[in-house]
Amino acid sequence: MIWKGWITTIAAVVFIAMGTGCKTPLPEKPYVCKDDVILLGDTLTISFLDIPDAPAEKQYVVRADGTVNMFRLGSVPAAGKNFSTFEQEMKAAYIAKGFYNQMTVVVKPGDRFYTVAGEVNSHGLRMVYSGQTTVLRAIASAGDFTEYANRSKVEITRADGTREIVDGKQARKDARWDRAICPGDYIHVPAKSF
To answer: What are the b/e assignments for 133-145, b being 16+ CB within 10 Å?
Structure first.
């Protein structure tokens, strides 16, 4: 009799766990891309307007230390700033150093990328980021999952180094699981364990 009581209790606990506690919770909140923030490795197209000796529109690369080597100013911090703030800071620096009384600085990002690798049909692709996209769209643009893909453990490494695991099967059923992909992100689809 006691044995039947324990079996009933264990069965009830397992039933409750299966119905509530064993599901992976939804992501707390959607990941928001900061498209207007300058990243390491970005190519910036910078134009100087309203000045007599303005250099032609020129491209500058944000170096590993987060700086760009600006015309007449030298090394200037750029990474982590949004584009409009960087424009205003450059304008203020040129005016403060006495190079110009008035000017306009326009900063535009060059092509930005994310990478899709692992068990996708066209793996190792560096894709141009052309606006809002999601992990499933990124994988689809790389030829979709291979038959050996572990769709439940898609890894995203963000440009800032944070990591996420996305359940691709769940994301196909419910779009709330399909996480945003941002410039500089690295998506890896691992192989199934056999």
So the answer is: bbbbebbebbeeb
Burial 176-188 (b: 16+ CB within 10 A, else e): ebbbbbbbbbbbb
**Under 8 Å CB-to-CB from 107, ≥6 apart: which residues?**
44, 45, 46, 83, 86, 87, 90
Tokens of 176: 């709330």
**pLDDT values of the chain reduced to their tens digit, one per residue, 194 residues:** 555 554 554 544 444 444 444 455 555 666 777 778 898 889 999 998 888 877 778 999 999 999 999 988 999 999 999 999 999 999 999 999 998 888 999 999 888 899 999 999 987 788 998 888 999 999 999 999 999 999 999 999 998 888 999 999 999 999 989 999 998 899 999 999 87
- Separation between Cα atoms, residue 173 and residue 151, nearest integer Å: 12
pTM for this model (two decimals): 0.69
Backbone angles phi, psi at 90, to 5 degrees: -65, -45
Strand order of the sheet with strand 186-189? 125-129, 112-118, 186-189, 154-157, 163-166
- The full set of domains in the chain, from first to last, is 43-109 (3.30.1950.10), 111-194 (3.10.560.10)
Largest CA-CA distance found in the chain, in angstroms, rounded: 97
